[in-house]
Amino acid sequence: MEKKDHSLDFEKPLRALEKQLEDLLKTSKESDLDVSKEVRAIEEKIERTKRETYSDLTPWQKVQLSRHPNRPYALDYVERLFEDFQELHGDRAFRDDAALVGGPACFEGESVMVLGQQKGRDTEENLKRNFGCPNPEGYRKALRLMKMAEKFAIPVVALVDTPGAYPGVGAEERHVAEAIAVNIREMAGLRVPVVAIVIGEG
């Protein structure tokens, strides 16, 4: 199956150069020609175009980048930055919320509690992850894990990437606004450091 191109409009010139480089390398491999000079020239042009493109983005283009489907999500960062991550589930009151992942891990030899909203890569996973929109049980799970971090005196690392709380009837029936408010209040009083990193929307 052909990989879908998720290029944004302002990235099209960059993608064209990358395709040109790819075609040149393919031709070189097939014909055994030395195209190193041309490859270097295109690579330099790609770097220059990248700098020019991403250094002068409009506010809307920045929003588009933050919502890009190929951006790394929370579990991608966890996999690459942390060791011994053990995902914990459930809020101990209703059920687990797959839109919010979290658990203890090690970062450069230090124990931390990692939390993050998780989106899906395809329709099935997006439905499972609720498109990264936590329900009240997700916020309560986050609070449970932050309190656990406080109990064990380890810092909290929050990877933020969400369009917002889930706005459904069920979420309102289970008091999503109250769950968010309690989290804000309790986070303000936590006796451990909390580092929030915006990795996408949020």
UniProtKB/TrEMBL annotation:
EC number: 2.1.3.15
One annotated GO molecular function: ATP binding
Alphabetized Gene3D superfamilies for the sequence: 2-enoyl-CoA Hydratase, Chain A, domain 1
Keyword ATP-binding belongs to the record: yes
Keywords, sorted A to Z: ATP-binding, Fatty acid biosynthesis, Fatty acid metabolism, Lipid biosynthesis, Lipid metabolism, Nucleotide-binding, Transferase
InterPro entries per record: Acetyl_CoA_COase_a_su, ClpP/crotonase-like_dom_sf, COA_CT_C
Organism listed in the record: marine metagenome
Annotated protein name in UniProt: acetyl-CoA carboxytransferase
Pathway(s) served: Lipid metabolism; malonyl-CoA biosynthesis; malonyl-CoA from acetyl-CoA: step 1/1
SUPFAM superfamilies reported for this sequence: ClpP/crotonase (SSF52096)
GO biological process, one term: fatty acid biosynthetic process
Pfam families in alphabetical order: ACCA
Domain CoA carboxyltransferase C-terminal residue range list: 41-202
Catalysed reaction, written as an equation: N(6)-carboxybiotinyl-L-lysyl-[protein] + acetyl-CoA = N(6)-biotinyl-L-lysyl-[protein] + malonyl-CoA
One annotated Gene Ontology cellular component of this protein: acetyl-CoA carboxylase complex
Record's keyword annotation contains Lipid metabolism: yes
